[in-house]
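User: structure tokens for this one?
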Amino acid sequence: MDKIWYIIGASKGLGLALVNKLLEKGYKVAATSRSRSALEKAVGSQNEENFLPLEVDLTNPSSVAASIKATYDKFGKLDVVVNNAGYGIGGALEELSDNEIEQSFDVNLYGTINVIKGVLPYFRKAKAGYLMNISSMFGFYSGYGWSVYSSTKFAITGLSEGLARDLAPLGIKVTTIAPGGFRTNFLGDSAVFPSANIIDDYD
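Assistant:
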């Protein structure tokens, strides 16, 4: 019960479910979202002493670093990091704009990398720590219309496998989690978008 958790992408879906379960069990949790108010509304007022809501731009290393420092300032340490932020853009590759593709990689892959790079100096100093990187079943299998999303999740899987080997001698553990479908609001709200550019051949 003395483990301190830091969870990104926590205002909905798997991240929110995990935050609520951990707080229910008495853990101390720092959690991030693009909107602090949305995160506070989603979690509610339970266990305010054990909960640190943080507004973070995952694509900005300085924003990520500030949130990690705030976690240490409040709780004194950090034990488990869950890289859970996800952005899904559906459509055939030709249908997606360069901006949509870049945003997918910025959030799903580079956001995860920013968090890992931000926390590793603390983990190395402690000679301990646990990284949980959320990939997807699409991280080893792709479905129709999900080539870009899948490529970001394949990258998370490969990144995690390499990190596990690099960090094991330093006492840091890495796990990749690759969920299939389950009941959250991920597919029903602003986390998933269809392409606005439809090409009839891919109908």
